[in-house]
Amino acid sequence: MRTTDYTIRTATPADVAPARAVMLDTVYRDFGTGYVPRWHADVIDLAGAYLTPARHTLIVAVDGDGEVVGTGALDSRGPAHPPNPVHVAERYLSGVTAQLRRVYVRPEHRRHGIARRLVDELLVFAAADGGYRAVYLHTDPAVTGAEPFWRSLAKVVHDEREDAGGGQGIVHFDVPLAGRPGAR
After folding, report:
1. What does DSSP say about strands 134-139 and 97-105: parallel, antiparallel, or unpaired?
2. Sign of the C-alpha dihedral, residues 118, 101, 59, 31?
3. Is 44 among the domain residues?
4. Does residue 168 have a pLDDT over 70?
5. Which of 17, 107, 131, 154 could lock 175 by a disulfide, CB 3.0 to 4.6 Å apart?
6. What count of Cα atoms within 13 Å lies in the side-chain half-sphere of residue 151?
7. What's the whole-model pTM score?
8. Residue 42: C-alpha distances to residues 10, 46, 111 (Å)
């Protein structure tokens, strides 16, 4: 799929290092956490997490110069409890849930519709799989623009900021799959 100056496509092994750079830059700059192994292990082994498993995928946004400027990933792992609320983990079971992950765009390339196109491609992949009953994601609302973006595409199923003690402060979303080619 082509946008104005960007191509959205399935990642190849040659894209792994530049995709990892986009992801690591994001966790350091936007999240302010840096690399945390228990949260970001998939970023280190992108091929093992997303390229090798049949029901997983990694897609990239490439600019006109051939540089990877955005990423999006999908896997078949539902959210674990803990740290996520038990009712969220029970709603989005592994194997039948497509979890959207690592939808990141370099700051200088934002506001061009790249993230939305990445999500569209991930949803097409999930629908074509035929085995996913739900699509889930979570986001950190402290990241500028993340919560409004996801609210424009998905429905909030749990906002941890409303929990006693605030939980992890994460917002959990259900993304509609119906209406996509291959969707049930």
Report:
1. parallel
2. positive
3. yes
4. yes
5. 154
6. 9
7. 0.92
8. 17, 6, 26
